[in-house]
Amino acid sequence: MEDCLFCKIVAGEIPADVVHQTERTVAFRDLNPQAPMHVLVVPRDHHANAAELAAADPQASAELVTTAAAVAAAEGHDDYRIVFNTGPGVGQSVFHTHLHVLAGRAMTWPPG
Ligand code: AMP
Q: N or C: which end of the chain has fewer CB within 10 A?
């Protein structure tokens, strides 16, 4: 999709620190990490949020979660948090589905 930051990262038009790739997903480090490990897992195809991806491509949706687990395991983390922000009111700023994978520090609940 034109003018989508994460589509451009998937296409290799904008550099990113890519840590894992599958047929349907790309995982790269967040530019502004909120934990010692903070990786974003995105589908290669453009969908605006997690629900739209799940409705359109359940296999890709599942692969985001299995990729998150693989990335955490590869970096030695048994415990990790995965987050889909959906909508600007809860902090979504990039409207291409992305799963945050955070690990490496203690985390509180409820989230802020
Ligand atoms: P959200 O606020 O949930 O939409 O998450 C978007 C995330 O993308 C934020 O955590 C940003 O720090 C991150 N981000 C923005 N631009 C880039 C980029 N060029 N490379 C990696 N991460 C980015």
A: C
